[in-house]
Design goal:
By secondary structure, the chain is mainly alpha-helical. It has one domain. Helix content is 66%, strand content 0%. The relative contact order is 0.19. It is a multi-pass membrane protein.
């Protein structure tokens, strides 16, 4: 993404927002241990954040992640693919691939964590 910004002068600075929110969702999704997600009770008396709060936070993280992919698709198609005057379409592909790889990294990190680490 840094090379895209350095090489191509974006008309709109909002093109970096999907990448920023994708990174935020990667952090939110992966900061929650799996042992907290798999608790059998939704509410616990001993902690301030029960299992319901943790699952809600995980849901919000994945919603942000899917939203960044949708936003990157919108940027790719609306500003680069459908624009007949735009000759160089690589920045649109770069923005989309950047967000897709962040999403894949978040899912892989979430799935590959083991219970032994916690």
């Amino acid at each position: 993404m840094i090379s895209l910004i350095a090489e191509y002068q974006f008309e709109d600075a909002l093109y970096i927002l999907p990448g920023l929110f994708g990174t935020l969702s990667l952090i939110v999704v992966n900061m929650i241990p799996l042992s907290f997600v798999n608790q059998p009770h939704l509410y616990t008396d001993n902690t301030c954040c029960g299992s319901l709060m943790i699952k809600t936070c995980l849901l919000i993280g994945f919603m942000i992640s899917f939203g960044t992919i949708i936003g990157a698709c919108y940027i790719l198609f609306n500003d680069y693919i459908l624009d007949q005057e735009e000759q160089n379409k690589w920045p649109g592909y770069g923005i989309f691939l950047h967000n897709l790889f962040i999403f894949i990294a978040a899912v892989l990190l979430r799935c590959r964590k083991s219970y032994d680490n916690f």
